[in-house]
Amino acid sequence: MKERLQKVIAAAHGVSRRAAEALIEEGKVRVNGRVATIGESADPDHDKIEIEGKRLGNQPKKTYIALYKPRGYVTSMADEKGRKDVSELIKDIHARLFPVGRLDMDSEGLLLMTNDGAWAQKIAHPSHEVEKTYLVSVVGDAREAVRPMSKGMDIFDEEGKLEFTALPARAVVRDVYDDGSARIQVTITEGHNRQVRKMCNACGLKVKRRVRISVGPITVAGIKTGSWRLLSDEEVKALTIVPKKKKY
Fold first, then answer.
1. pLDDT of 99 higher than 90
2. Residue 60 has what pLDDT?
3. Strand pairing partners for 210?
4. Phi, psi of 131 (to 5 degrees)
5. Interatomic CA distance for residues 134 and 109, integer angstroms
6. Top-confidence residue, 94 or 67
7. Is residue 126 pLDDT above 90, yes or no?
8. Are 66 and 84 in contact (CB under 8 A)?
9. Are 240 and 128 in contact (CB under 8 A)?
10. Is 79 part of the annotated catalytic residue set?
11. Each residue of 222-236: b (16+ CB within 10 Å) or e?
């Protein structure tokens, strides 16, 4: 059956669709002997698909891991600025993995990685509303801040323009300390750039540390900083089940 070429490459070559499109744009992909173009379709069972002269074989073994990304690492497999990236943390894995979603350089915690493009896209699709929970260390009035977060809020950029509207989050105060700092737990189902940090800042909080402690039913518990573990078959399946709507 014919499918979009970038989808076929992503599934069989263990890369994201964006990376597959880049291979096509760079002229590295041939279909039945001719250079492929963006937008065309191919049948992996009948067409001869080659990447840099090597025929696209059977799909590689699908791998799914949960990584504890340390602070200071960028969520990419290579960085043009020479910063530390997550590829350095999975050198012992003989599969070409890519991150599922992002976690900014100044944050740490759970990052899922895989070579299954279809699985990653299901998790990222808005209809699945996969919950992501963060434990955030802040300075400021945490008890007041969680109220607007729980109702939903507009986030504006530095020029005062609306950047995005955050849906209601599940935000609770975990700890309050005598020095004016606190820890709050925030659960969201969206993925706006630095969303939790921007929500905290908009509520008058200064973020000192942000740790993503779970994605759906998968938690970071038991994983040491900079280490990873394989997901079980049950965990892989659980992440693609559309959850029942929850009222925060």
1. yes
2. 67
3. 136
4. -75, 135
5. 9
6. 67
7. no
8. no
9. yes
10. no
11. ebeeeebeebeeebb
Residue whose structure tokens are 């340390």 = 70
Q: How far is CA 107 from CA 28, 127, 135, 194, in A?
A: 35, 26, 11, 9
Q: Which residues contact 202 (CB under 8 A, 6 or more apart)?
A: 148, 153, 155, 156
**Alpha carbons within 13 A on the beta-carbon side of 87:** 10
pTM score, whole prediction: 0.76
- Determine the pLDDT at residue 178: 94
Choose, from 47, 79, 104, 141, the residue flagged as catalytic.
Answer: 104
**HEC secondary structure over the chain:** CCEEHHHHHHHHHCCCHHHHHHHHHCCCEEECCEECCCCCEECCCCCCEEECCEECCCCCCCCEEEEEECCCCECCCCCCCCCCEHHHHCCCCCCCCEEECCCCCCCEEEEEEECCHHHHHHHHCHHHCCCEEEEEEEECCHHHHHHHHHHCEEEECCCCCEEEEECCCEEEEEEECCCCEEEEEEEECCCCCCHHHHHHHHCCCEEEEEEEEEECCEECCCCCCCCEEECCHHHHHHCCCCCCCCCC
